[in-house]
Amino acid sequence: MASEEQTIVLITGANGGIGFELAAQLLRDNKYYILLGSRSIEKGEAAVKLLQERELPGKVELLQIDVNDENSISDAGKMVEEKHGRLDALINNAAITGEPQTSASLSARMTAAFLTNVTGPAIIVETFAKLLEKSEKMGRTPRIINVTSGAGSIGLRSDRTNPHQEMKVVPYRTSKAALNMLTACQDYEYGPKGWKVFCFCPGFTESNLGPMNKVEHGAKPTSEGAKPMIAILEGRRDEDHGGYLKAEGCWPW
Ligand SMILES: NC(=O)c1ccc[n+]([C@@H]2O[C@H](COP(=O)([O-])OP(=O)(O)OC[C@H]3O[C@@H](n4cnc5c(N)ncnc54)[C@H](OP(=O)(O)O)[C@@H]3O)[C@@H](O)[C@H]2O)c1
């Protein structure tokens, strides 16, 4: 069980990529207690083991959570409630691009991208809100970060001079635009209570997201993609709450 002094952070989809790296960076500080979200127990256990082997000062434990599955989200919520009784920060990081690995139809890919990238984060916030409220009652500032992408900016998409115009990825773009709207709705709902809600784009980063997410294609290291979220979690970007943040400044909606 986390102590009262520790900051409990849930990161979904943290068995690899940016989520894993964020967990690793936070664990350098003993104030953090990380709930490492993973839909696969096997991958999650391997990730936790890897982090524990580094003997970092913070604490980490696996939380099985499949963001596509309402029962899994509900079970994860109950588990955190029973064991820790609160949550201080929630990072909706898990996502898919919805790009074809097989011959899946556009309909199937749109549905899959919206389920993981929008419906999941909506249900997770609804489920964990009462645990974030417990954090608020302890005099803390609950924070929610929805990990989005510049690919979801309607302003950038409408700009024909933008160098990334050729990247179609319609399921990804549309689901991240919807995630941005979800963030605005969550900020409307929870902002007046003093909670800080953000969407944050890590920028083009090395990960398992797609075949192009490699350093040789210009992707930045995972450590750089994850790092700005620490400043958000530590309140250094609170003046941007409700915004569409990137490492420095904000994207146009
Ligand atoms: N990398 C970039 O260039 C970039 C740019 C902008 C935004 N982002 C955003 O950054 C976030 C992290 O992505 P990443 O680049 O680190 O990609 P990644 O390496 O593919 O990591 C995605 C994570 O999400 C998990 N996930 C997928 N579906 C899930 C589900 N239904 N339930 C639970 N977990 C699920 C994956 O788990 P499995 O291993 O089980 O599949 C994986 O751990 C995403 O929101 C992404 O959109 C990334």
UniProtKB/TrEMBL annotation:
Database matches in Pfam families: adh_short
A Gene Ontology BP annotation from the UniProt entry: secondary metabolic process
GO molecular function: oxidoreductase activity
Top-level division of the source organism's lineage: Eukaryota
GO cellular component terms listed in the entry, alphabetical order: cytoplasm
Chain coiled-coil ranges: none
InterPro entries noted in UniProt: Fungal_SecMetab_SDRs (IPR051468), NAD(P)-bd_dom_sf (IPR036291), SDR_fam (IPR002347)
Family note: Belongs to the short-chain dehydrogenases/reductases (SDR) family.
PANTHER family: CHAIN DEHYDROGENASE, PUTATIVE (AFU_ORTHOLOGUE AFUA_5G01530)-RELATED, SHORT-CHAIN DEHYDROGENASE/REDUCTASE
Protein's name in the database: NAD(P)-binding protein
Originating organism: Alternaria alternata (Alternaria rot fungus)
